[in-house]
Amino acid sequence: MSRFGDDDRSEDEEGEGEDGSSESGRQERSTPFDRYRRNLEVWRASAASSGRSLLWVATGLVVLLVLFTTLYQVQPEEVGVVLRLGRYVRTTEPGLRAKIPFVEQVSKIPVQRQLKEEFGFRTTEAAGRSRSNFSSADFSAEAVMLTGDLNVAVVEWIVQYRVADPYLYLFKVRNVTATFRAMNEAVMRQVVGDRTVTEVLTVGRQAIETRAEELLRTLTQQYEMGIAIEQVVLQDVNPPDSVKPSWDEVNQAQQQRDRMINEARAEYNKVIPRAKGEAQQAVLEAEGYGLNRVNRAQGESARFQSIQEAYRKAPDVTRRRLYLETMERVVPRMGGKLFLDPDARGIVPLLPLDGLKAAAAKTPSANPQPAATAGGAR
Questions:
Q1: Measured by CB atoms within 10 angstroms of the end CB, which terminus of the chain is less buried, N or C?
Q2: For residues 162 and 230, is the Cβ–Cβ distance under 8 A?
Q3: For residue 80, what is the enclosing H or E element?
Q4: Distances from the Cα of 372 to the Cαs of 324, 328, 366, 378, in angstroms?
Q5: What's the confidence (pLDDT) of residue 335?
Q6: What is the pTM of this model?
Q7: What are phi and psi of 339, to 5 degrees?
Q8: Helical H runs in 194-345?
Q9: CB 111 within 8 A of CB 165
Q10: 146 closest CA partner among 178, 187, 114, 194
């Protein structure tokens, strides 16, 4: 058995040797076409496996594209205006919404946000700073205006507004922002042109803001722009730079004039009322003096009439009474008195000069007062 087995192994080894030699012979005898065919088969196998991977990638991209073109987000202060092939179909509220991809388009309009337009200047927000910076560009064409008295003023202002109707805002007026700015300039020039330069620069600011706001509100409603005007605010109102020094001199002169007028009015208020009071006092004193004189004259006249009536009734008694009353008034003012009897005889008169001088010195020098009014004969 071992012999037969050895024979079989030897035969097999001989066969394998023959096959290996034949295979190596065939490899040695292979042509370039055979090699190209083998490479092509290898490429087909790898392409089949990579094609399945590309199919999955393309499917994922299509799904993502559909999601991105179908879903959209509307912010809380916005609304979405949906157009289907260019025609308005609906307005969507804030939130995550969907639309037909490639057929519908969405325009987001900020209806809750306060918008503003600046005229004569522009503000730019600086990064990292809370204070706004102003642009250095020249916007004088918007701000230079002619006043009613043919003077020039530089007026800068802000208009604050909101979008009240998104449909009107998008479709009723072409290029609504440019139209709105042109409307603002026309209205402000009209309002400023109706006033003098002094009113524009000083006391007329509030009236200008109110009037411009009313005209803008009327025009936006007339044009159906879908805009609600909230406020018109004047910023800087100045004369042009070329005439500003002269304008400052005029203002200083006007301030000096006003100061002098105020001082004159203060002096007037201090002097004139006092003079009027003094004049009124003089008039009242004159009226009182006249009334007193009249009353005294009337009293004296009544007294004289009463004395005359008493004299007519009793002449001797009245004459004696008048004499005695007169002597009562006159004698006490005479000082020293010396009585001589014209019928005395044989007596040497003694004239005491020292006593008469002392009595004369003590006598009052006032004029005698009139006697009281007599009521009749006593």
A1: N
A2: yes
A3: strand 78-84
A4: 13, 12, 17, 14
A5: 65
A6: 0.55
A7: -105, 130
A8: 197-201, 205-223, 244-313, 315-330
A9: no
A10: 194
